Amino acid sequence: MAEKAILYDATRCTACRGCQALCKEWNENDEVIPAVQGGVKERNRGSYENPKDLSTRTWLKIGFNEVEHYDKLDWLFSRRACMHCTDAACVKVCPTGALYRDEAYGIVAYNKDICSGCGYCADFCPFDVPRLDGNRILGKNKMDKCVLCTQPGLNRLEIKQEPACVKTCPTKALVFGDRDTLVATARQKVAALKAKGFTNATFYGEKELGGLHVLYVLNDTPDKYGLPVDPKFPSTATAWQDIIQPLGWTVGGLTLLGLAFNFIIAREAKMTKELPGKAGKGGKKHVAE
Amino acid sequence: MTNHWNDIANSDCTLVIGGNPAENHPASFGHIMKSLDTGGKLIHVDPRFTRTSAKADIYAPLRSGTDIAFINGMIKYVMDDMDKNPQNYNMTYVTEYTTASFLINTSFKGPVELDGLFSGYAGGVNETDGAKRTYGKSTWTYQLDDAGIPKKDKTLKDPNCVFQLMKKHFARYTPEMASKVCGTPLEKFLEVCRTYAATGKIGKAGNIMYAMGTTQHTVGTQNIRAYAILQLLLANIGIAGGGIQAMRGESNVQGSTDFGLLSHILTSYLKQPQNTDTTLAKYLERTTPTTKEPNSVNWWGNTPKYMVSLLKAWYGAAATKENDFAFHNLPKVHAGKNYTHIALYEAMEAGIIKGLWVWGQNPLVGGPNVNQERKAQDKLEWLVAVDLWETETANFWKRPGVNPADIKTEVFLLPALNSYEKEGSVTNSGRWIQWRYKAGDGPGVAHDDLWMMDKIARKLKELYVKEGGPNADSILKMAWDYGEDHPDVHKVAKEINGYNLTTGKLVDGFPNLKDDGTTSCGAWVYCGSYVEENGKEVNRMARRDPTPDTYNIGLFPKWAYAWPMNRRIVYNRASVDLDGQPWDKEHPVIWWKDGKWTGDVADGGAPPIKVDPKARNLPFIMTAEGHAKLFGPGMAEGPLPEHYEPWESPIKNPFSKQQYNPAVIVWRAAEQGTVDKYPIVGTTYRVTEHWQAGQMTRNLPWLVEMQPEPFCEMSEELAEEKGIRNGDRVIIESARGNVNMVALVTKRLKPFIMDGKIVHEVGMVWHFGYTGLATGDSANLLTPHVGDANTTIPEYKAFLVNVRKA
């Protein structure tokens, strides 16, 4: 079967956020706010953008970026969710195999039942997407992220339906289909944008990390949309999977805990420096509010 | 809408002004996108850079309340360009299809001569006596020949012809003046003019989309008049991709208007009877227009057929020729009295109105000067609120700051079903009447509106029989038979369509309605929606056949039913020349071929003007003139749009001494804010995530999470001046009240530079209130109790405020 992908054409997106709402509704992530009179935890922080960040209950979020480019003001909208990388760091570091590459669709699939809650995926994701609640060292909680509507019982792909976010998009800013076809479409769209005067128009996702399964048509460079310009597969992820992790298992629980703790702190500092797109944990926020 | 949603894809240029479709009509944006895909342009004119502006080719800012200065400036640009480049315009259309050539009464005078006023005003400039804030219209008339037909000069040279009067009137609206009054940068204004005027060329189509940003002004109706004049000069009415689209804010608000929701109309735009209509004949004489224009269709000349058929639908056998078809059973309004929202709440406060039935609306969030309206409601003896959730209106007796024990109103809350929990029709902005089916059961004891109305009507009849009462016949004689247990919605739909009472069969189309009592019809424009075909009853509203139309311009004639007569583009006869050949052969709406009309359902139906010069075939069939009215004598404040400042304005009107609309009703003169105390322009609006007064969305967690609180958008410049940071709480005050909101400091609002003077504007969402999951202040605590001179729609969109850090 041909690999699938979502094409997000930012120049068509009106940020109506039907996708963001329906993602929650379809995937039953709607309990975040208690439905009682006057009981709202959320606040407006001087932005249309809400909630503040992705979470275990927010797998998709539209960003709003005010920029001045091409001699005029623009309001750029950007979709933030799992990119379903081909060379997915999260898959590489996942110790239990909960995260794996789905050979049929090419996406990063997830077997939540065997997630140990270690949080390595969150640490190594170049796009800062996976989220865990609570204490990741104790591994109490499970990770959550977009699985392209393949949750057991809520799997839209297996019944030949497009993901919920695509279904609800009124302007066809989101399209689902064979990746090869969408790559060709995206190339044409970007060429057309360049011809229209958007000289920095970018097709994002074709080659990044071996090819993303969420493709972006942008009228400017990715940074203007809050996307990392050149996302890299973290070299430390290889080390983690191939050397440190097996070692950890053999040395025993206590050693593992100590190693992990040290490693996480050291790498955290390193990643903030190396990967601007990963900033966010104390670094510069990459989506304007 | 003159056209319909799908037709927007045919547009070469869409001008959105006074609207924000990306945010408030998100599905509509798919159609706009289609027009952009094929090289169309999008212009957005708005005080704020919104999600619509983000997708526009050109964004032009304008200060709230200055649409007329902007559009009049565009009209002047077009008229000047017509002189220089007539080949770029469809002058035949202007001469033959509009009143441009009509000669006007030589005594008529306009703002050029009368310092902002038109001839016939009862008062003086800036009149304060309410009784004198009105016009006598004896000079707003055509010159007639001996046969009573308006005189014309088709060379458009006569100084008293409408075209020349317009030239004189619009001459003052230079680009420099438009820029100065609107605060639009001059070059940006000219770019809009150049781009949009290019749609005047034969074969090009420009489309104007508007919503409440246009209407909710003291000059709201004139704003739309200005759009109409511009579109007529550009020959953009009646053609594919053209027209003027009122984007309705609710899924079925077109339907509710069609069914007489407003106080001045019955169903299908028949005029509301008034106390001076002592007989049906007198009512019909007052409301049926006549014409001497030989080729005018004058469709409203059919009023008697529609009115009599309506009375037959409502009163059945009790409506006979002898008793004026039970006309006397209809309630009458007092001539000259105002029955619109503001007037109703003023009457409530005065203790005149003692009971209120609020059906699927939430005026205590949505009403203007809502503090006053909340207090007015305290005086009611009883209130019935019908809704899906408890609303601010239903909960007014326990709102913050009041002691429930002090309020004596008896309140009834009737839980309703939502549109997916019941069957029926929904009419969209493009006049498509689409049947919907019940998708699921509602909660608890919730019922649909029809069930409730049926129960109430039957109970009322029972009580009148038992106890009697004034005007008993109005209720007792009413034909009411929709089934026993649950009323049958199909019976209602068929009554709306109408019957031939002789044969008992459904009527197929309003040309078959009669004024002699032999037909019934609940809403004449819906006649044809539920008919008999080959001996079987067919609900045309339920059709879902996507077969394209003859010329494949997106009409989808077999999809549902469009009023009137399944016509998808109204005034479509203006899309063809005098021979019946389309101006735009790539997107023909109708086409006279082999002795008949092809394509859309042609307006009227008579052959083209040159094919049958004696037929009634002028294209604008709803005007007595048969021509589109560039000169509009029906308007309250003048036959041509003139710029007046909003009731509360930061500047003196640069066009004349007349500061604001000379014909508006002022209820609360003392509550007019002044620029020394309130120097900032305020405006209100909605966001995608919430719907109207919020009762449907402020209870849904997904939507509340995305927009949890009311906010006030302001420019970085104003924020700096006031020491406000993004995300701070701020207090916004007007002469009516104050609100506490989150400051949203943005580049998307910029101060207006007008004649060297800086004027700031802030914008606030109005969805919020004190009930539901998400609460907060409604911006309507600030808005004034003043409305448009023709419709009294409140001036929500432009008023004065001040802002400070909380």
Number of domains of chain B: 5
Poorly predicted spans of chain A: 265-289
Helix content of chain B: 10-25%
Radius of gyration of chain B: 26 Å
Quick one: biggest sheet of chain B?
6 strands, mixed, barrel
Average pLDDT of chain B, to the nearest integer?
97
Which assembly state applies to the chains in this document? heterodimer
The secondary-structure element order of chain A is: EHEEHEEHEEHEHEEHH
Work out the radius of gyration of chain A.
19 Å
What can you tell me about this protein's structure?
The complex is a heterodimer of chains A (289) and B (806). In chain A, strand 2 (61-69) and strand 3 form a beta hairpin. The radius of gyration of chain A is 19 Å and the shape is globular. In chain A, helix 6 runs antiparallel to helix 7 (253-274). Helix content of chain A is 28%, strand content 16%. With 289 residues, chain A is of the alpha+beta class. Chain B has 806 residues and is of the alpha/beta class. In chain B, 23% of the residues lie in helices and 14% in strands. Chain B is built from 21 helices and 26 strands. In chain B, the strands form 8 sheets. A 6-stranded mixed barrel of chain B has the order 19-25-20-22-21-26. Chain B has a 5-stranded parallel β-sheet with strand order 3-2-1-4-5, sandwiched between helices. A 3-stranded parallel β-sheet of chain B has the order 6-7-8, with no helix packed on it. In chain B, helix 3 (67-84) runs antiparallel to helix 7, helix 3 (67-84) packs across helix 8 and helix 3 (67-84) runs parallel beside helix 10. The longest helix of chain B is centred in the middle third of the chain and has 19 residues, at 449-467. The model of chain B has no long low-confidence stretch (mean pLDDT 97). At the A-B interface, helix 1 and strand 3 of A face helix 2, helix 20 and strand 22 of B.
